[in-house]
Amino acid sequence: MRFVDRETELKELSEIEALSKKKLFVVALYGLRRVGKTRLLLEFLKSKGIYFFVNKNKTSADLLNEYQEILKKGKVLGELESVDSWDKFFDVLMKRNAPPIVFDEFQNFSFVEPAVFGIMQKNIDLHEGKSGLIILSGSLIGLMKNLFKSSKEPLYGRIKKGFKLEQLSLASCLELGQELGLAKEELVKVYLVFGGYPKYFVAIEDF
């Protein structure tokens, strides 16, 4: 399905990326499930960045190994190199001028490896003057906000920009509906029931 109605967010991310060429920027993106966060981030990254999904069903060791392979594929880590700890993983990210980095469902580190929050905080503080862009995205809005806004949390005060991704507008949903061959009346009914969540329009397309 064609990507629509996120021009403002893409422009904002591009502006932040430009600023991150001079100084490290850590950004938080909030939004309910199915609102289109992952699609927005992948559209922004395309071939220029690295995407990490924090799978809460994996062990810390398995996730670290998966991320190591992603770093090798992205040419941030050499084929014969390895990262055997989260400390080393974040040290590599910060020191090697990696392209824009996304951690999707970032709050899931609470279940997989809570120590990551403190490790990341340490590395952000050590490398604040370096260039780089890290985007932390999450669906559990309360937990995500607590990670960055509670003075008891390691990442308190480390986010330079935070914003919430809202549903698609009715006009954008009508545009998508036309592509799917749905009548305007049908589209309005779908919108009233499901709202502007792109995931439901993808389901209609697949059906």
Explain how this protein is built.
This protein has 207 residues and is an alpha/beta fold. It folds into 2 domains: 7-164, Rossmann fold (3-Layer(aba) Sandwich), CATH 3.40.50.300; 170-206, no CATH class. The chain contains 10 helices and 5 strands. The protein has helices at residues 7-19, 37-45, 60-73, 86-95, 109-112, 115-126, 141-149, 170-179, 184-194, 198-206; strands at residues 25-30, 50-53, 101-104, 133-138, 161-164. It has a 5-stranded parallel β-sheet with strand order 2-3-4-1-5, sandwiched between helices. α4 packs parallel to α6 and α8 crosses α9. It starts with 6 loop residues before the first helix and ends with a helix.
Keywords:
207 residues; alpha/beta; Rossmann fold; 2 domains; five-stranded parallel beta sheet; elongated
In a few lines, what is going on in this structure?
By secondary structure, this protein is α/β, with parallel strands linked by helices. Helices cover 49% and strands 12% of the residues.
